[in-house]
Design a protein that fits this description.
Blueprint (H helix, E strand, L loop, with lengths): L2 H21 L4 H10 L1 H9 L6 H8 L7 H5 L10 H13 L2
Helix pairs in contact: 1-2, 2-3
């Protein structure tokens, strides 16, 4: 895992921590996936799933799309970790719910 992947992994852990602290949302399955597979693999899996995750829906209901995996995929600091297709998928999903 290179430094950028480590930073992204930490960002995924921070999504969990912020959601729990600020929203009272305990995303148990999400943090389990991050712990088992790493932040990057988890993000790719969730991003390319045919279904919107429960976590995404919860964050949307709370008006916190900024805490979604999709929002993090689009951050410039992580651009090199994702393909143009990944970034478009994230953009499209966020646009559906804004």
């Amino acid at each position: 895992m290179n430094e950028m992947e480590r930073r992204f992994h930490r960002a995924m852990v921070e999504i969990y921590q912020t959601g729990k602290r600020e929203l009272g949302y305990n995303a148990t399955r999400f943090i389990q996936m991050v712990s088992e597979h790493g932040g990057l693999a988890t993000a790719r899996q969730l991003l390319w799933s045919d279904q919107i995750s429960d976590g995404f829906e919860t964050l949307r209901r709370h008006g916190r799309l900024d805490l979604t995996v999709e929002a993090h995929v689009l951050k410039d600091e992580f651009a090199d970790l994702f393909t143009d297709e990944d970034r478009q998928r994230a953009r499209d999903r966020l646009d559906l719910f804004r």
